[in-house]
Amino acid sequence: MPTPTSTPTVACVRAVDLRPDWERWRLPLKSQGARGTCSVFAITAAIEHAVARRTGKGVRLSEEFLNAAANRADGSREDGGFFHDLWRGYERYGICEERYLPYAERFDPDLRIPRAAWANARAGRVRGLRLHWIKAWDVTTGLEPAQIVAIHAALQRGVPVLAGMRWPREPEWDGGLLRMCGPEHVFDGHSVLIVGYEPRGSAPGGGAFLVRDSGGGGRWRAIPVDFAAAYINDAAWVE
């Protein structure tokens, strides 16, 4: 696994910030509350972005439906899941608009999905939407140089990137920038959506990835490139 100070060199990387996309499409931040559904929120936001890019308008989609669809697809009764499990649920059942099945404060493994939600999910499924892997899940490795480049390339095309990460047990922030820590202080883990990049000479690795984070009430945050290089377990984009 790369150490927290072994970021591969990525030359001539331009700043990019996709946060205005969500403002333009009226897709504000969401909070996962006390549930362990960070991956559900990240992938739902990625689908919302992909749909809005195609249609030119933003539609709030249902994390609750996607969570239930993933459980139905693999016969589990879990709150949250891996990106590949959630995508399997999307491919099989689609995803409905949030108004048909709002997010609940508590997880209900016996949730009954209304017929209107099923119908809306089928009708609203976007043909041709695909999940493209940059790094398949592996908790023992960080990012290779080519994978860092692939994240930058997706952002430059205007596409956000899903990131499942090892995360600090007790995160510390410096003005919204996650503070570096050693592997003995992280756990598996937390998921965010990478929505931009800023060159920052003072940040470990010389830059920071901007992220949409459903934790902590829902916030825009920043993660040092060195942290991403050391602790991203899996990464993908939707288009």
Gist?
The chain is of the alpha+beta class and 239 residues long.
Largest sheet: 7 strands, antiparallel
Tell me the CATH topology of the largest domain. Answer: Cathepsin B, Chain A
Radius of gyration from the CA trace?
17 Å
Number of strands: 9
The second-level CATH architecture of the largest domain is Alpha-Beta Complex
Mean pLDDT: 93
The percent range for strand residues is 15-25%
Distance between the termini: 29 Å
Computed structural class: alpha+beta
Question: How many structural domains in the coordinates?
Answer: 2
Q: Give the CATH class of the largest domain.
A: Alpha Beta
Roughly how much helix do the residues carry, as a percent range? 25-40%
Sketch the topology as an H/E string, one letter per element.
EHHHHHEHEEEEEEHE
Tell me, what's the shape?
A: globular
Uncertain stretches: none
* Continuous helix count: 7
Q: How would you characterize the overall build of this protein?
A:
The protein folds into two domains: 16-20 and 130-238, Cathepsin B, Chain A; 34-124, Cathepsin B, Chain A, CATH 3.90.70.10. It is globular. The protein has helices spanning 19-24, 38-55, 63-74, 83-93, 115-124, 145-156, 225-231, and strands spanning 16-17, 131-135, 161-168, 173-174, 177-178, 186-199, 207-213, 219-224, 232-238. The protein is an alpha+beta fold and 239 residues long. Helix 3 (63-74) packs across helix 4. It is 32% helix and 22% strand. The strands form two sheets. Strands 1, 2, 3, 6, 7, 8 and 9 form a seven-stranded antiparallel sheet that branches. The mean pLDDT is 93. It is built from seven helices and nine strands, in the order E-H-H-H-H-H-E-H-E-E-E-E-E-E-H-E. A hairpin with a 5-residue loop joins strand 7 (207-213) and strand 8 (219-224).
